[in-house]
From TrEMBL:
Taxonomy, superkingdom: Bacteria
Name of the protein this chain belongs to: Outer membrane protein assembly factor BamE
UniProt-listed PROSITE patterns: PROKAR_LIPOPROTEIN
PANTHER family per UniProt: OUTER MEMBRANE PROTEIN ASSEMBLY FACTOR BAME (PTHR37482)
A Pfam match: BamE
Family matches, as InterPro entries: BamE (IPR026592), BamE-like (IPR037873), BamE_dom (IPR007450)
The keyword Signal appears for this protein: yes
Residue stretches making up the Outer membrane protein assembly factor BamE domain: 37-110
Keywords in alphabetical order: Cell outer membrane, Membrane, Signal
UniProt KW Transcription regulation keyword: no
Gene3D superfamilies with a match to the protein in the record: 3.30.1450.10
């Protein structure tokens, strides 16, 4: 057998072995892990205490990703999402954490809380449609009816 054919076959087998090594039976290979949104650090959370002003919270933590006002109270929400990306470009959410800072009517911190997926509640989206008044007709049916058909 010529040397060129043997070396070509070895190169082909080596290339296939490399490709198959990437497809392990345990799943896909992890390329990167990253944090989206705010990165919640213990040091920053330790600086937030009851009685501090809303402005100081903004200086320490930055602008919140979401706010809420209910009655005399308000809240700032900082969301941290940890994402993993596989070799094939697929991303999956591994964890999501929400830091909530609650303020009183004087814009002073009254409490803080950290929520994870375990604290959440699954909400079922209703797929039924609300019936409308009258019949459901297509555009063509409406046009034909306007001509008396």
């Amino acid at each position: 057998m010529p040397l060129r054919t043997v070396s070509g076959s070895i190169a082909a087998v080596a290339a296939i072995a490399v490709v198959l090594a990437g497809c392990s039976s345990s799943g896909t290979q992890l390329i990167s892990q990253r944090t989206q949104g705010y990165e919640i650090s213990e040091a920053a959370m330790a600086q937030i205490r009851p009685g501090q002003s809303q402005e100081l919270v903004t200086i320490v933590l930055g602008s919140p990703q979401s706010t809420n006002t209910f009655g005399d109270q308000s809240a700032y929400y900082y969301v941290e999402t940890k994402v993993q990306q596989t070799a094939f470009g697929m991303t999956s959410i591994k964890s999501r954490t929400v830091l909530a800072i609650y303020f009183d009517k004087n814009k002073k911190v009254i409490d803080k809380a950290v929520y994870t997926a375990a604290d959440g509640k699954t909400v079922t989206v209703e797929s039924r449609r609300t019936p409308s008044f009258g019949e459901d007709r297509t555009f063509i049916q409406q046009i034909l009816q306007s001509f008396g058909g």
